[in-house]
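Two folds, back to back.
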Amino acid sequence: MELSAIHHVAIIVSDYERSREFYVNKLGFSVVRENYRPDKKDWKLDLRVNDTTELELFAPENPPKRPSYPEACGLRHLAFRVENIEQTIEELKKLGIACEPLRTDTFTGKKMTFFFDPDNLPLELHE
């Protein structure tokens, strides 16, 4: 068996328009597909991260709140690799997106920080 890459990561969001604005207009992911699914009463938005990876945003009516602290089983956070973390932090700041203080990953020695999407899902920047 060869699992060669991550094809997509799916995220359930509570507010379709707010999350679309954040991921498309602020983070800059391009729209691959955008569909309303009447049978499920939700929106499904597929976004291109790079040539091989997509984010899927699902926006159902009244999704349950995401457990956070203490953390529950399941997706802990989503991490994005960046070349220049300080520059990326400044770009996010100009968009009104705050990042946690910059720190160094104990195991890799690389710089990292976190910021949050509109539903408080932790998103990581990692050099």
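---
second:
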Amino acid sequence: MYNILRKLYSQYLKFKFRKLGVFDNSVDFSKHTSLKLIDGSRKDDIVIGSKCRIYCSLITQSGGKIFIEDNVKIGHHSIIGSVKNILIKKGTAIADGVKIFDNNNHPIHPEDRLKMYNSPWDSPYRKWKFSVSKPIIIGENVWIGQGVRINKGVTIGDNSIIASGAIVTKDVPANAIAAGNPAKIVKTDIQNEPRTL
């Protein structure tokens, strides 16, 4: 009975999200999923590939793009927010509670922040488009641990691992493990590690 109800609810979510993103029927959503188009963003600003599990919030403002390739899993309570461009390549796994933003959310200059803080909640000054933003690229078969934060302008190479709780402020090469705050490379050439499967 549970599986039947879950499939029905999943179909309802797919119907609900059709006007908010581009995806096929193989994508799995959960009750924790939300898709938000803000300040002129359109349906084709969120594109999700086949066989993905999207259990997170995807937010695009001012035409920011979020492109998720095939077979990507994004866990509960994760948030991906774009005002520029975020690309997540195929086969990547993103754990629960991960935050990925291609922008600072707020302007840097103190006077600009005062203007924002003193404006009404629905003011255009509160939009991400007034913050510094740079694209993010997450490569193929990347594993991003629980509670990670990935900041604007970062590229993470194929097959890399980002350890739980890391704050990624700089690029991570392919086949590497990054950990810490700020994240540092702690291991390279992980493709040479002994196989366990």
